[in-house]
Design a protein that fits this description.
alpha+beta; four-stranded antiparallel sheet; 15 helices
Length: 731
């Protein structure tokens, strides 16, 4: 390799199956980290980092962000990227999590997208001529406008520039409702690509072997035309060069210093396979590396040195040990530069200083790591007065002037102990925290609760300690450091209750211990379910977690988040508000949630059945459904109509309150107290007692009257209805 010459750094190719790879349609590089984005025609978004020359790239994440091809990737500043496909525009974090998205139909597909200079807004346009300004921070639509329907290239600075399929360049002002400020015909065919630097816009398109340069403030005439050796298809405006990708399969540059009159030093020409052409191109912000992708799924990485930097916002990792710091200090200012970013500031000598700075950590000094900070005295906070963002308070004379006690004196004993006196029956004097157990070499916990001791406590009428409500204390490492095995010696796992909507934990445990329903959800979770927010899939994942945790605490956060996204759940009031409050009792809430979960599972499992049009009961209905025979009879013409239905719950109804809502229809809303209150109402009203067997009997066979249309009489009649339970569920 010649000094300063460009060479092929590496190639990267990943097969999607049967030794075939999807064409890569979008490539991008972050400006603040060494991260490479690629998007292919299958909707897969993948991130890579560089490896040694000649070695494949290290894949970091790979997610299926859409079913349509990925058209454009625009990195943002907050460790995420704006991704455009045909039907979705979305913000995806570098970790692979989707933060927000906006959708459209394939009949009105997205054809262009661009982000603002600060990365807080984005402008997208569709094939039908609809333009939308999005606020990426608040995840809201700011403004909609009608733009050119044939837009195929978009740039967003202070104004929005649109290149159309008929060769026109339109400049629209977002501050003036996206009205056209300027427009001009820049090429004879479709605009292939645009690049913007300062007030200059660079345009290529049609069959012209030139790049037209326009002043965005005046599009009347081009400022200059840059002659190219091939047909330019893609442009990239970097800090010092204009990068041009040609249809013939090579990339060259023009220097901004010479106003694009002279060639740059970079030249990239990968050896493409037969019948392949360049499908995506990007230059690194440092201009030390170029990325070229073709239609066979190969990513070519070219560089001008063997240790290039992709971005300008990071520097190579330089590790300086504590011993090296001492040597650097002894060397003095003659060998170290004050402006060297790779050297710690504490190692640089300062004029008139004769000892190391306090920030220079000495290897021989012991540091009290983990010691908690002390709290400010309540009397001080009560008398605090703010002035120019500074608080002033009189000294309570509990400490010396301008001094604050440093933490608690017995904090190490506190973390080493980790238990209270009333917990020692369960913990046997051991720490509750795994970190302290490992630190002091404690052996795995063995339960010391004997059957004789438990029987004695039960005989005394006391609730055993392991069945009482426990108060979990967090260490500085959080809930993951808590040893739940001290309180749960079985293999069954519990669900954490420190998140919202945890009233559902008991119901989820009941469903988990129903073998038929557990096997159904686990089987459904293993299928290729097309619904991304499938409630049954989330139940299967939770049940798999409970089955493999072996007593370790689990949580249903993902399931409850999917439940919160269902509009039906919001309409039924199944969710708590932000303060954990509900409008109805938790008994009714649990009953509604039970019905909702079983109905959703029945509908979602029905989609994957072989014969979804069959009239046979669904799987969930056969296991949990109660078969009801509904009969309607007209008292005038005696015409009867009968049908069969399935229900997942039966309301208890008093025989003394048939046709009235004041009986025991809401008995589940208040437990035994509501039962006693309703029975008292029945006795006072009819002077007749109601037994539990009568209550169940009247609930299994319910009679009612309702005004409905009679097909025989050809008019509305007061019809007699009867709902009789014919079969009980299998579970």
């Amino acid at each position: 390799m010649e000094e300063g010459g460009w060479f092929e750094y590496t190639q990267n190719w990943e097969a999607a199956g049967d030794d075939l790879a999807w064409p890569i349609l979008a490539v991008a590089v972050r400006t603040d980290s060494e991260l490479i984005y690629t998007g292919d025609s299958s909707g897969q978004l993948t991130t890579y980092t560089l490896n040694a020359p000649g070695e494949a790239l290290d894949r970091q994440t790979s997610i299926k962000c859409a079913q349509a091809p990925v058209r454009r990737i625009l990195p943002l500043q907050s460790s995420c990227a704006f991704v455009q496909t045909d039907d979705i525009v979305q913000v995806v974090a570098d970790s692979g999590l989707r933060q927000c998205k906006w959708e459209t139909s394939l009949n009105d597909a997205f054809v262009g997208a661009a982000t603002s200079t600060n990365g807080t807004e984005a402008f997208v346009c569709t094939s039908a001529g609809s333009g939308t300004l999005l606020d990426l921070e608040t995840e809201k639509i700011v403004r909609r406008a009608t733009v050119e329907a044939s837009a195929c290239a978009v740039q967003f600075t202070r104004v929005v520039m649109l290149g159309t399929a008929d060769g026109m360049l339109a400049v629209r002002d977002p501050r003036a409702a996206f009205s056209i400020v300027q427009s001009a015909t820049v090429c004879s065919g479709a605009v292939s690509d645009m690049a913007v630097r300062d007030h200059s816009v660079y345009v290529c398109g049609g069959q012209q072997h030139t790049v037209q340069i326009y002043d965005v403030r005046n599009l009347a005439q081009p400022v200059r035309a840059v002659e190219c050796d091939g047909l330019p298809t893609r442009l990239w405006a970097a800090e010092s060069n204009l990068w041009i990708s040609h249809e013939e399969g090579f990339v060259d540059t023009r220097s901004f210093a010479s106003e694009c009159r002279t060639m740059g030093t970079a030249y990239v020409e990968p050896e493409l396979q037969d019948y392949a052409f360049i499908s995506a191109f990007a230059a690194a912000p440092s201009e030390r590396m170029a990325l070229v992708a073709d239609t066979t799924g190969v990513l070519y990485v070219w560089a001008d040195c063997e240790e290039p930097l992709l971005s300008t916002g990071c520097v190579p990792d330089v590790q300086i040990g504590l011993n090296d710091m001492g040597q650097c200090w002894a060397a003095g200012a003659d060998t170290l530069s004050f402006d060297d970013e790779h050297i710690s500031l504490s190692c640089v000598d300062i004029p008139h200083a004769h000892e190391p700075l306090l920030s220079c950590m000495d290897a021989d000094v012991e540091y009290d790591v983990g010691r908690p900070v002390s709290y400010v005295d309540a009397g001080v906070l009560g008398s605090l007065k703010m002035m120019d963002n500074v608080g002033y308070a009189p000294n309570p004379r509990k400490a010396r002037r301008n001094q604050q006690p440093f933490g608690a004196h017995n904090w190490r004993f506190k973390w080493r102990d980790g238990v209270k006196d009333d917990d020692r029956e369960l913990t046997q004097g051991r720490s509750k925290f795994l970190s302290q157990q490992r630190r002091y070499g404690h052996t795995p916990h063995a339960s010391g609760r004997s059957k004789a001791a438990l029987a004695q406590r039960a005989a005394e009428g006391n609730v055993p300690k392991h069945l009482q409500l426990m108060q979990i204390e967090y260490s500085r490492f959080g809930v993951e450091d808590f040893d739940f095995s001290l309180y749960n010696t079985t293999k069954w796992s519990g669900l954490e209750g420190n998140i919202s909507n945890t009233y559902a934990n008991a119901l989820l445990q009941v469903l988990y211990f129903s073998p038929e329903f557990r096997q159904l959800t686990l089987s459904h979770c293993a299928t290729n379910c097309p619904d991304a927010n499938c409630l049954t899939c989330q139940l299967g994942l939770l049940f798999r977690m409970l089955g493999t945790a072996q007593g370790v605490s689990c949580h249903a956060t993902q399931l409850l988040q999917v439940l919160a996204q269902r509009p039906e759940a919001t309409a039924l009031g199944l969710l708590e508000d932000s303060h954990g409050n509900v409008m109805i009792t938790y008994a009714v809430l649990a009953q509604r949630l039970m019905r909702f979960v079983l109905e959703q599972a029945s509908n979602e499992c029905r989609r994957l059945e072989i014969d979804s049009t069959s009239q046979q009961p669904r799987i969930v209905e056969r296991v949990f459904g109660v078969t009801q025979q509904s009969t309607t009879e007209c008292p005038v013409c005696h015409a009867a109509n009968s049908r069969e239905s399935h229900a997942f719950a039966i309301d208890l109804e008093s025989p003394l309150s048939v046709g009235s809502s004041s009986g025991l229809a809401a008995v589940l809303a208040g437990g035994s107290a509501s039962v006693r209150r309703a029975e008292s109402m029945a006795r006072n009203g009819r002077n007749q007692k109601v037994g539990f067997l009568d209550l169940v009997s009247s609930s299994l066979v319910r009679h009612d009257t309702q005004r409905a249309w009679c097909a025989s009489c050809k008019k509305f009649q007061l019809l007699n209805t009867e709902k009789r339970v014919s079969n009980m569920p299998e579970a």
